[in-house]
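User: Fold this, then the next.

Assistant: Folding the first:
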Amino acid sequence: MLITSGLAHPIIEKIAKVAGHNINIMNHEGVIVASSDSERIDQVHQGAIEVMKMASERVIYPSESENLTGTKPGVNLPILFNHECVGTVGITGDPNKVYNIAHIVKITVEALLQQNYLSEQLRYKRKMIEEWAFDLINTKFTNFVNLEERAQHLKIDTEQICTLLLLEIDGLNPKTATYQELSEKQNHILQLISVHFTPIFIAPTGKDQFFMAFPAKNNNDLEQIRRLAHQIYEKLVSEQLDIRIGIGTPQKTVQGYRESYHNALHSLQMIKKLQHSKKIMHISEWGIIRILDKIPNEFMDIYLNEFPTLTTPSLHSELLETLETFLDLDLNVEQTSKQLNIHRNTVAYRLDKVKQLCGLNPRSFNDAVQLKILLFFLKLID
């Protein structure tokens, strides 16, 4: 642990104003890195070198100072970090008057060194988790033994069943914010989630996405994870953030975590693609839609071209709304009329109109399935 001018100078600025004495902070080589007397910076302090060698305090009286290079009367104390002397603090003046002040500065510097060390350790671990998470979700990275070993080093128990959440936030866009602003927002979000929800691990997968894991009791523990996802959503919305959350299936092992991540990613993509009103979706909630989404667009186009009236003004928004509501309500005319606040005869008329225009009868189960798929295709390739 090195004592730098960046660490020492702010301390000097604050304490020197109230101490009324010159204060010096020296590094492990006895060089003054910060001082209330700017002319002394970068000078070698002989008294500090003695302190470093002995790892004990050195009180210098006026009669001795003339024989020590770059030294004036005062008190010099060792700065300790993990039981090692890493620098020195010196106060110029009558040793009897400045002794206590020197100890205050010493304690302050040592506390800051410890704080900096812990911060660096946290940053280092976060970087390692981010690198591990990046390899975990990268399908081209197939060394699962390596992923398991790194997880153990990071104290991530991959035998723990976890559900993976993928959170996306609008507004964290490099085109609309500076790098520093993005980093600050990203750090704020990471801290919020880590403090309030304590995930097993959390890592950004881009400027606007965050990948996180939470323990699950078993592979069917969906309600608990939905509640947690809603709590996270509410917390971040209260921070004026516009977010979406995709939820994967509970899994264990790094291979299972990867599968859960890609489930969450697919769910998130579907929310965006279909502009769904729900902002939190578990992959299982999509049912057959997630299979339809895997069909190439050219095949969707071929199928849609067989029913051209679906993509022309003939099937205007009123008919589409009625059709979609009818299909969503399990072909129930009564429920559709209530939902749309229209007469059931109006529903019947509109359904007949759809049949006339498309050649598919919404009241027929087989035709209704085709219409449902066609409407999904319209949204998926929009």
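Now the next one, as you asked:
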Amino acid sequence: MQQRLSRVTTADGSAIAVATVGEGWPVVYVSGWLSHLERGWELPEERAFLEGLAAGCRLVRYDRAGCGLSDPTSRPPSLEYELEQLAAVVAELGDEPFDLIGASLGAPVAVAWAAAHPGTVRRLVLYGGWASGPLISPASAREHILGLVASHWGLGSDVLTDIFAPDAPASARAAFGRYQRESSSAATARALLELSYALDVSPLLPEVAVPTLVVHRADDRAAPLAQAEALRDGIPDARLAVLPGRSHLPWAGDGPALVATIRRFLGLRVARTPAGTLTPRQQEVAALVGEGRTNREIAERLGIDERSAEGHVERIRLRLGFRSRAQIAAWYAERR
């Protein structure tokens, strides 16, 4: 899959970057705290997660103001501004109802949208979210993290990566730490994190009148399971699916299980790929890895760029459940 980039403009003139992947009915994804449409697409684990969601539908994502490819802004973050940006994105979809996925900070934003615009949303998915930001963690812990992000963004991003993605390989955590720093300035990161801690949509939950699935990992280190239960209990007829794992980032840990859970609820086909099954191109790349070829050599052999070769190798590793390139080579040798 390839993503298509465009821009929309909010009522106050802010330019918001939008990425669309796939074809079919629209599924709008409101991301967590920080995002960068290009950097996220280049991160193999996140791309695999997004491609899994986008199969058979049109996945629409965007960078909120001040993040990623969107314009900087002088407006402080607020729920009102979040909804203005979401309104600009969905205005491009016309009158067609869409499915809405809110992840992390995107979950309370999605709740507020669904409560105010029930006729626009077909189904609502809330992953890793909360009803009350002040109850995510003790006030002392929140102040410590906010201070660390503001005073030392490099260290702060690394600490948050360890909280958000403890189940991810070290290489993916290092890449995500850089991704966060490239997504926004320290000031914007702190302001958005402070908004995350401040948002409380508990009063809006009874007003959500669309079919809703709340999905959460049992031992999420960034958002307690109790907040997922609060969302489930507050939204009429909402369902709660609890998956194993500690990671807050949706692509970290068992991303395919999360994708399958969301797709079933949205009525999308869930691919049943036998374990260890690779696409023809992935088999070709695995063979070259088994021969000891570098990413550059694989790229030259296949006529692709080196970054694409690296992405193929990482998706093979994810599909096979391996942690290293050496395991791919050993797997290929054994199959031969």
